[in-house]
Amino acid sequence: MSTPSQPPLRTISDAQRKTIFRTFLWILLGFCALIGLLVATFSFQGRAARQYGSRAVQAALASKPSPNISYEQNCADLLNTPLPDTVTSCTVKVVAGKPEALLNIEGGRQYRLNK
Q1: Which phi and psi (to 5°) does residue 19 adopt?
Q2: How many domains does the chain have?
Q3: Which structural domain, as residue segments, surrounds residue 34?
Q4: Exposed, middle or buried by CB within 10 Å (0-12, 13-18, 19+), for 85?
Q5: Closest residue by Cα to residue 69 from 98, 90, 91, 92
Q6: What pLDDT, in 10s, does the model give residues 84-114?
Q7: Helix, strand or coil for residue 72?
């Protein structure tokens, strides 16, 4: 029995090498653009939610809460505006006269905002 012979090595021309490299760069650029788009989307959604929570805290402060009373109030009731699309729930909790908003966002994220 003889040993099997190796197939001849394939040579890659310069034109093929350039095409392969260009394709790799396009895939890499597309991947980076996709990651950037995801980061921008999450940042924008989070900013809208935080602004809503900040307005709720300001509204609670405007009512001049007593330092002797603690209570919770729904942000939508406090502001008379509906929740943003990405916010699942928002509650303003006043403890010792200091309001704090607790926002639950889609995807299980949470923001706590105070004065």
Answers
A1: -65, -45
A2: 1
A3: 14-114
A4: exposed
A5: 98
A6: 888 999 999 999 889 999 999 888 889 899 8
A7: strand
